[in-house]
Structure formats: C-alpha cells, structure tokens
Amino acid sequence: MDxxxxxxxxxxxxxxxxxxxxxxxxKSYLPGFVVEKLDFSTLTQSPETYLSxxxxxxxxxxxYSCKLRSxxxxxxxxxxxxxxxxxxxxxxxxxxxxxxxxxxxxxQNKESLSLVIPVLLYHGQRxxxxxxxxxxxxxxxxxxxxxxxxxxxxxxxxxxxxxREIESLNNKFLAASFLALKHTFDKQWLETNAERLFxxxxxxxxxxxxxxxxxxxxxxxxxENVLNSLPEPIKREVMNTFDVYFEKGVKKGREEGMEKGMxxxxxxxxxxxxxxxxxxxxxxxxxxxxxxxxxxKVRVSLxxx
Length: 305
Hints:
elongated; 14 helices; 305 residues; alpha/beta; 5-stranded mixed beta sheet
C-alpha cells in the first residue's frame, strides 16, 4: 500500500477501478433504460486508448467498455467517469472534448464508432446543477445555437442524495465510500460517523478498506474513544493500516535523510501523526515510540510555521 495519503482523485480511482464496485456503481446510477441494454458480464476497464496526448494532461477519468445485450453487431459502449470535487461550469467542454477525441481515435484505428456515455461524479461543497453546452451560450440567439454540438451526460451529484439513499446501495463498501466523499469537507460529520463508515464497509476487499481508512482519517480527526469502540476485527484492520502507513513513512524518511540521523525521521513521523491524523500527544508518542515531551516540541514547532 502506498504510504501517501490518498487525494480525492486517488480515492475515487481506487474504488472504481474495482470491477465489482464499478458494476454496482453503473447499475445504481445509470438511467434504467441504459442499464437494461448493457451486458455487464462484458464490462472491462479500458486503457487510455482514445485519449489524445493533450487530453491525458487534463482529464482525470476512468473508462470502462461494455457490450449491449442485443446481438445486433459488435457494438460497444464506452462509459467515462469524470470526477470533480470542486465546481467547474466548463466541465461540459472537457467532456465534449473526450467524446470527440474518442470518435477521432476510433476512426484512426479503423474501428466501428462506439457510443460514449459520460458520467460526471461530483461531491463538492458548492451547489452544481445539471448544465448543457447550450447553457454556456445562454445569450446566443436560438437560431445560432443550432451550430453547437449537442450531447448528454449522466450527472451524479452526491450532494443531492440523502445519506439514507446512499446507504441503501446494495454494495455497502460503495455506500460507505460515497458517504465519505459526500461529507469529505465536514470534519465533524466524519469524526462522528467514522465508526459507522468502517462497519458499513466491512467486510470488503482488503486493499480498498485500507484506502477508505486512510481517506477518512486524512479528512477528519478520529477521537480515541471512537477508535476504541470499534468491533475488534475492524479495529485490528484500522490499526494494521496505520502500522503499514507509518512503517513506510518512516522508512522513506530514513532513506532520504539517513545522514541526518534517526531524529529527523521521528520528527517527520510525529508531524504526520499530528497534522494528517490529528493524534493527541500521548497517541503520537505511543505510535512513534518517542517521549510525550518530544511530541510537544514538534507540535510547538509546527505552530511557529
């Protein structure tokens, strides 16, 4: 497991790269008439075959391909998930760029044209309503709007869904992950509901559970009493995740600064415990195997910055 704290994008990519979770996601959030037409047994994650070099630098997407249930030809549907944690009204242009880039690459590869169904997954703080390309040209005369490309996309705004709706998803790990994403900017909610999220997500695939644990801890400070109240198997998984994270972090610090001694690695480790995970002086001292006074000094130095 990577010792780096996962970003929003890293976390979304990690969970939706799992074929079982991706299938559950599409079945839950694609329009019903689309779900009925797709053969999900053929769902496969696609390499960035249809991305131009320019788009690879700007699009943080996940692409799946899926065949239709109908046997009418070898038609393939490309499902594009574009993830956003901040409002950006120009995203529709970005989505359009992908669609036409995909068509152009298919033509260059002498392939039959395949339909692209874009999905915009959003979990930011600002209100964001569904918009089309025409909405960006609201002041343009209607007769001139005929020259604008017309395409649709699926808008999955987690902020418009109630917690109960999300929690009712059949795939409970997906439900826990989406609840964490929805409330990612509300530290108080994450602190209060961390136990609920971990229990909801368990049992899950081990690597994915670790991603969720680190993501939740990096966004909220988990009180010690919550950690202690977790059921034993889940508590063990949480602590094991931290052990691996800290071990890799310390190893990296030692490799980068061996000549400066062990203390530098310990300082970096304690800084991570305080800043990224919100540990108390006593908790940080116990995990880093240093004195409480050492942790206090590190905390004071952080306040001076």
